[in-house]
Write a structure and sequence with these properties.
Shape: globular
Structural class: alpha+beta
Number of domains: 1
Distance between the termini: 42 Å
Number of strands: 9
Radius of gyration: 17 Å
């Protein structure tokens, strides 16, 4: 019985670790210029519930440097979380549904495969 409990606890811990690492951060092969299509805040983590770093007005320029591998959902919109830098040195996470990315749309973003465990 004790052995089964240890096995169950181990499976739970391994599952939690895999879930936490499944959405890896990928460095873009080149930074992307973008502007906000409406007011939005940069967040400390790629999560709309995390601490706000700074709130920006619509049309504020940002430079995108990394992206989460998997898409997420924020306020009913599907997209990617990007780590962004703004003038003045602030850095945080912004959701793609609030971005106009130049020159390509976010689906065309080239990702540096050396940072992906699967080579994606």
């Amino acid at each position: 019985m004790v052995s089964r409990s240890i096995w169950t606890a181990t499976l739970i811990l391994v599952s939690a670790a895999l879930a936490a690492t499944s959405n890896v951060e990928l460095k873009l092969s080149a930074p992307l210029a973008a502007t906000l299509n409406e007011a939005f805040c940069l967040y400390e983590s790629p999560d709309g519930d995390s601490d706000v770093i700074i709130c920006l007005n619509a049309r504020a320029p940002v430079t995108l440097v990394t992206r989460l591998k998997d898409k997420g959902v924020l306020e009913g919109e599907e997209g990617h979380w990007y780590k962004a830098e703004v003038a003045g040195g602030a850095e945080g996470w912004v959701f793609s549904a609030y971005l106009d990315i130049q020159p390509a749309d976010e689906g065309d973003a080239t990702v540096d495969a050396t940072n992906s465990p699967e080579g994606d």
